[in-house]
């Protein structure tokens, strides 16, 4: 099996500048272990794997693709520069005929638009939901001590808890609280 692999420097038009990512074009999904071995071999911060979703489409004319990202040690949920690098391979190397490509990822759909010589990506809006802070008393106490909390929100997509301190908190109070912990 041969897998085309490109090394792309995102955020630049100069060689050896920007943020490098490896991009692999796959006809079909691979075993997770093989993704990991390839990413480890590439030894870049991320290796992106673009997969055709329909066997009848190709990388030159398809508008929707699967996309996964692996570091040398594990799979990740989202990588902006490797997504742009993937779109660059499709648009500039494979001469994809669409002005927009959609990637199906662990973070949902990511769209990359070709606008002149630039590529523009829409990041997912992972909107957090306000939570009852009583559910998180122990975590909040450990994280912020006695500082006044305005809101506690949770994002199901990223699995992150967001704590907004009251506007009366300033750096002085934060630093003093940090010393007390």
UniProtKB/TrEMBL annotation:
UniProtKB keywords: Isomerase
Name assigned to this protein: Phenazine biosynthesis-like domain-containing protein 2
Keyword Phosphoprotein: no
Taxon lineage: Eukaryota, Metazoa, Chordata, Craniata, Vertebrata
Gene Ontology molecular function: isomerase activity
Native source organism of the sequence: Ameiurus melas (Black bullhead)
Family membership: Belongs to the PhzF family.
Gene Ontology cellular-component annotations: cytoplasm
Keyword Repeat: no
NCBIfam families recorded: PhzF_family (TIGR00654)
């Amino acid at each position: 099996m041969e897998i085309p692999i490109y090394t792309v420097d995102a955020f630049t038009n100069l060689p050896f500048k920007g943020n490098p990512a490896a991009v692999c074009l796959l006809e079909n999904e691979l075993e997770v272990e093989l993704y990991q071995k390839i990413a480890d071999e590439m030894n870049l911060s991320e290796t992106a794997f673009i997969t055709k979703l329909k066997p009848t489409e190709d990388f030159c004319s398809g508008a929707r693709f699967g996309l996964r990202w692996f570091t040398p040690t594990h799979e990740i949920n989202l990588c902006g520069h490797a997504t742009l690098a993937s779109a660059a391979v499709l648009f500039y190397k494979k001469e994809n005929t669409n002005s927009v490509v959609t990637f199906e990822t662990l973070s949902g759909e990511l769209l990359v638009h070709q606008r002149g010589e630039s590529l523009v990506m829409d990041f997912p809006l992972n909107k957090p939901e306000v939570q009852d802070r009583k559910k998180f008393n122990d975590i909040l106490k450990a994280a912020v001590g006695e500082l006044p909390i305005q809101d506690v929100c949770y994002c199901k997509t990223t699995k992150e808890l967001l704590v907004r301190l009251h506007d009366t908190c300033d750096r002085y109070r934060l630093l003093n609280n940090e010393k007390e912990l």
